[in-house]
Every structure is written in C-alpha cells, then in structure tokens.
Structure of Phosphoribosylamine--glycine ligase:
Amino acid sequence: MNILILGSGGREHAFAWKIAQSPHCDELYVAPGNAGTAQVATNLPVGFNDFEGIAKAIVDFKIKLVIVGPEEPLVNGVVDYLKAQPELARVKIVGPDRLGAQLEGSKDFSKNFMAKYGIPTAASQTFTSETLDQGLNYLSTHALPIVLKADGLAAGKGVIIAETLDTAKAAMTDMLVGAKFGEAGNKVVVEQFLRGIELSVFVLSDGVNYKILPEAKDYKRIGEKDTGPNTGGMGAVSPVIFADENFLRKVEQKVVKPTLAGLQAEGITYVGFIFIGLMNVKGEPYVIEYNARMGDPETEVVLPRIQSDLVTLLLAAADQKLADSDFVISPQTAVTTVIVSGGYPDAYEKGKVIAELEKMEDITVFHAGTTTNDKGEVVTNGGRVLALTALANSLEGAVNKSQKAATAVQFEGKYYRKDIGLDLIRYTD
C-alpha cells in the first residue's frame, strides 16, 4: 500500500526509516518532510496544517494509510477533517481526533481528566488573565520550586520551573499578560514540583486495546547537567534502567489502563499514540503530562528497538485489531544525541552547510531541521538539526558511539550536550 507520514522532524524521519523497511509499503510519502526523509521517501510540498492539500495528496497518490506525526495538526483536527471527506472513507489513519488530542492540547483538560479518573499526578490549579491576582497570591503560598505550564501547545518549551517566588510571579505575568507563549499561555497551570526521575512510556491504542512500546528518557534542558531553558529535547535513551518490571507494571495498572478507560468513558475512540510523561517518585509513577503522539527525540530510540514490522502494528491499530498483534523488542540500548543550531532554543541562523554526514559508521542519522540548498548540499533549517542514534549491547557502548558521531558532524555554530546518558551510567554504578 501507499503510505503518507505528516511532519518534518526527526520523529517523522524515524517513522519513514522504519516504515520504508516494511514489505507492506509500496510507495512512501512525507509531507512536507526534510532532507533525511527524502532519502527513503518522496517529500510532498504540503504543510501538515494544510488539510485541503493533504486530502488532495491522499487522493492523487492513492494513499491507504496516514500517520500523523506532530501534535499541532492533531489538536487542530486533521483527523476529523479527513474522516469527513467522503472520498477518503477507506483511508486508514493513525492519530487521535480533536477530542482525543485535547490530552495534549490543553494541560487544564488533562489535569481535570486525571483527577476525574484517579490517575496519579501532581496537585495543580489553573489561572487566566482574569484571575491573575488570585494566581499571584496562590504562588505566595506555594512551596518552592514551582512548576508553571502554558495550557496549550508551546513546542515543548511551555514549562517553567521557578526556583524563587519572584521568578514564578514574573513568569506567570509574562505568560498571562505579556503573551510569552501566545494563545498557548492564555491559561497557566501551576503544579506541585515532584522530586524523582523522569521518563516516558509510549502506548499505541486502537480505541479499545493497547500495546506498550519501549520506554525512554529524554533530556529537555539545553545545558549539561539539566541546566538552562527547556528545549524540544537534546537526546534520549531507551531502555531506562530505573524503570524495572515492577515499576512498569504499576504504570500499566495505575496509569495506562485508567487512561484508556477514561477516554472510553468520555466517548473518545482514541486511535494512535499516547506519550505519557512520568516521574518515578520513590518507585511510584506520577503523570507529568500526556502527548497525543510519539515524542521527539524519543521516537529516534524507540523505533530502532522494535524489531517487528511497524506497518503491521499500525494497521492493527487502525483496524482495532491490536489484541491480535504482537511485536519483538531488541534487548540492546539505543542512545540518540541531538545536534542543534547555535543560539537554540532562542534565535538561531539557518542555511549552514552540514559536513561529514557520510562518515557516520554504525550510526542511524535522523534529520530534524534540514533541507537542501541550490547546490544539493544538506543545510540546517531548524533549531534541532540532527539526531544521531546508536545501538549497542550496553548503555556505555551506545553513549560512546552516539557521542563520537556527534563530534564528527560539522556545521557552523553546532552545539550538542556531551552528557546524554551519563546520569544513567552513574545510576547503574
């Protein structure tokens, strides 16, 4: 069958890389894609929020399966739009509709959902510009540090952990009055800070049944030792050493099952991925956030560990037949190091020629923010540029291979964290 992936980042390149290996895939398309997806698929000049253009591409290229990568089109209702087109009635789609995507599209919705269905999470309250004074007073009574989250989509950067009361008050005012995150910050969720170790668990749902994919840990801060502002993610590791069988069993019983039961109780047929951001607090799982899709850069370590055919699994989800499906996970460790443009996550330049990519031995290079210039050279086209994934029989081996590759890639202003995975090596020690 012909398959279409929506998106242009490292996550979408990872999906394209994996799906291109499937005997079920005849022609693979990515809209709009990047320089990496162009190596394994045909890029289409269609934006992932151009619903009309996507529908036309599905018809023109005889697409039978659509995978929606990013959160924005999901929250904006791309699945609802496509399902409303009579000529697309037989097209299979992996991705939740607008109602399901609220799990990510609104932090306030997700916190209320967790409270309603008894899913463990941090205590929180939500404030708007109309209740700013109440919010500021509430901060004065709150224990430090304080977590502030923009309610809507903010490209992974809408979370602020304030170490002082003044910082928290300034952040809340900046969001609600100064529109720091635009409409995404029209509501601010103030949360209790949880002390523990963070990780992510990924679930594929067909609306009734589910499969739990390999877990991962990502590194959100720009600076080493988790310092500086949040980014979209600077690297990731899978599996996660502190997520043993007992902990993951608790995640399934206390989080996964009640989440899916809650969605069904709300009348939401959720077909697609649920990214569950968790904190391991003394062996107990607490949900930090939901995302309505796979994570980035976590996908770049999760998919390489799935040894089975991915298209078979995706079709099972779309056809509500996950109960009859299974897949094999590699026991190896995957580590990815993200190379970013200088200045990221703030202002950065594009168009820098990337050198030495052809020398990546025993490494899978996933393109995130890349394109090609008039000379056919691969150049930077975003904040996060590349994700360099290594598989090895040990965590230390995978870290070393990924980091060695990161030193080899060259472009003006490149930056990467040199401590991806080192905390987990120390944890094992």
